[in-house]
Amino acid sequence: FQLANIQFGIFADHILEIVRLGSYREIPMPLPYIIGLTQMRDYIVVIADLRKRLGLTPLPLNPSTTMIVAKFSTGMIGVLVESISHFKQLAEKEILPPFSIAGFPADLLHGMVTERDEIILLPDLDKLFSSYIHVQLLPITQSEKVAFQYRAIPG
After folding, report:
1. DSSP labels for 132-154?
2. For the chain (length 155 residues), average pLDDT per consecutive 10?
3. Most buried among 17, 100, 123, 127, using CB within 10 Å?
4. In this structure, are residues 80 and 51 in contact, taking their beta carbons and an 8 Å threshold?
């Protein structure tokens, strides 16, 4: 999926559904990035605006807003994203160890993947949503791309 011109990935075994934002209930005094609750099938799903969690302006809340419903140790979370780009099957060896990039701390990432000239961040959404670490997503700089390419080369 994409947020602020940065590609992100989420492991498919976490994903239950990709849907449009439907009706939801607001809750009193939520965390700043929590939008509310909705019910899907027999589950209560917490709706979280990932842009807001990453220090960006919130997504517009309308029926066309995309939501990835995923299961984590903290429960069912509907993650609001700008867009879904594609699915990609990865071998474990293709996932590179994380390092701090784009304002994202390394300990909140599972790892990173390169695809053509793109860097795909694999955030640990479980940690991200259960952590109070301040994250301010920034554009990936040219020097970060060079450092990433240098790390990605074996040897």
Report:
1. -------PPPHHHHHHHHHHHS-
2. 92 92 93 94 93 93 92 91 88 88 93 86 92 91 82 62
3. 123
4. yes
